[in-house]
């Protein structure tokens, strides 16, 4: 017996129903604990929220929040980016988090303040800025 081919309208409805199912399953995932990574450079601040295994749940940066050029490096931009990255995970039920801050930028403290204000309990705040152990050889001294 041959199957009948569904009409275009029916195919579209089936596809939409399948996509709706996928989306709803992803948003209902509860994440009780996570890790918040703050990368603060002099020119931008990037905030990434992951679960304990390291899978990215949400991220934001000063650039994606609408700040351009030199304003991306400001503390206010970092605060906005942190709030923007944390809002979806608070809705998903995150209660505790560990914060890892990397970089020398101005947005370090502002992002941390925004994270504290969000209502997530912080279990640990760790500075993971890479430091050289006498890294590369400096250029030779300039003779004038």
Mean pLDDT metric: 86
Uncertain regions: pLDDT < 50 for 5+ in a row?
none
Largest sheet: 5 strands, mixed
CATH topology of one domain: Nucleotidyltransferase, domain 5
Radius of gyration: 22 Å
Alpha-beta classification: alpha/beta
Q: Give the topology string: H per helix, E per strand.
A: HEEEHEHE
Task: Please tell me what the overall shape is.
Answer: elongated
Named CATH architecture of one domain? 2-Layer Sandwich
What does this entry look like structurally?
This protein has 144 residues and is α/β, with parallel strands linked by helices. It has a domain at 31-125: 2-Layer Sandwich (Nucleotidyltransferase, domain 5), CATH 3.30.420. Helix content is 33%, strand content 24%. The chain is built from 3 helices and 5 strands; from the N terminus they run αβββαβαβ. The chain has helices at residues 8-27, 75-91, 107-117, and strands at 33-40, 45-51, 56-61, 96-102, 121-127. The chain has a 5-stranded mixed sheet with strand order 3-2-1-4-5, with helices on one face. Helix 2 (75-91) runs parallel beside helix 3. The chain starts with 7 loop residues before the first helix and ends in a 17-residue tail after the last strand.
Give a nutshell description of this structure.
This protein has 144 residues and is an alpha/beta fold. The chain is 33% helix and 24% strand. It has helices spanning 8-27, 75-91, 107-117, and strands spanning 33-40, 45-51, 56-61, 96-102, 121-127.
